[in-house]
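Kindly review these tokens for lecture notes.

. . .
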Amino acid sequence: MFLTSKGDVVVILKEIDGGWTLVKNPSGAEGYIPTSYLGALEDSKPAEPPPVQIDRISCSMA
């Protein structure tokens, strides 16, 4: 059985024409909910800096 509540964070698996979205709830169950019930999460952590290439390594033993 697929159960979810207001405020649950779900994973969007597939958007379906007709206003339905297939999602996975916190317990791992999958089901369809109306797309209008979904809202975007604001990113709670800062974006990670872009990767960089290390050209050389230097270290000193003190």
User: Anything to note?
Assistant: Residues 1-39 form one domain. The longest strand covers residues 11-16. The chain has a mean pLDDT of 79.
